[in-house]
Specification:
binds 5-O-phosphono-beta-D-ribofuranosylamine; Rossmann fold; alpha/beta; about 220 residues
């Protein structure tokens, strides 16, 4: 059985991947990123690609909130950005149907949810079976949902972290690809803790994408 080792670096506990991902994939992955907010995870992925540590290309960024900073970041990296405002779609399936159309039009093969604050439906998951990834700011299955950071603080756990997993119909569920652990410090607020969790998110998301791709036939 594989041993998971944790090492202390400053105020962070890092759990390295059980099987290290080789980020130099033979084939360039065609990614479509879904983001609702700041887009720092989008940028971490774009940086890994620019640094040639992840062999991929972001074909398109889809965002649902007209004010999402992710769209500005996409422009900086010359990634086409498409706004699909969820308020214009009566049902979740309608929005997902439009998302699928945009992804297919941009020749996307992997869907990367990076702070996508909408519940996804079978319309998206069935169009990209085992090819939709999500990142969540807790060690799933603990603290799913939109308040994962606050709930970890309120529960008094001493270690939390982040998880990259395959998306499934149930929110923040599905097979786990990678996790990183982050200790909760006595003086932490949700803001300080989330900032340290995000540093780990930015580290593991590119690796988890490569790892997921390597698991594909
Ligand atoms: C991240 O903490 C992610 O885990 C959660 O939403 C946040 C998105 O951050 N799902 P950003 O927009 O990538 O900066």
């Amino acid at each position: 059985m594989a041993e998971v080792v944790t090492e202390r670096t400053g105020a962070e506990l890092i759990s390295p991947p059980v099987a290290a991902a080789d980020l130099r994939l033979p084939q360039r992955l065609r990614l479509g990123v879904l983001a609702s907010g700041s887009g720092s995870n989008f940028e971490a992925i774009a940086q890994a690609i620019a640094a040639q540590t992840l062999n991929a290309q972001v074909q398109v960024l889809i965002y649902n909130n007209p004010k999402a900073r992710a769209a500005e970041r996409a422009a900086q990296y010359h990634v086409p950005a498409v706004l699909l405002n969820h308020r214009h779609y009566p049902h979740r399936e309608d929005l997902d149907g439009e998302i699928v159309k945009v992804l297919q039009a941009h020749n996307v093969e992997w869907v990367i949810m990076a702070g996508w604050m909408r519940i996804v439906t079978a319309v998206l998951l069935d169009a990209y079976p085992n090819r939709v990834l999500n990142i969540h700011p807790s060690l799933l299955p603990s603290f799913p949902g939109i308040h994962g950071v606050e709930q970890a603080l309120a529960a008094g756990v001493k270690i939390t972290g982040c998880t990259v997993h395959f998306a499934a119909l149930e929110v923040d569920s599905g097979p786990i690809i990678m996790q990183a652990a982050v200790p909760i410090l006595p003086e932490d607020t949700a803001t300080t803790l989330h900032a340290r969790i995000q540093r780990q998110e930015h580290r593991i998301y590119p690796e988890a994408i490569a790892l997921a791709a390597q698991g594909q036939p």
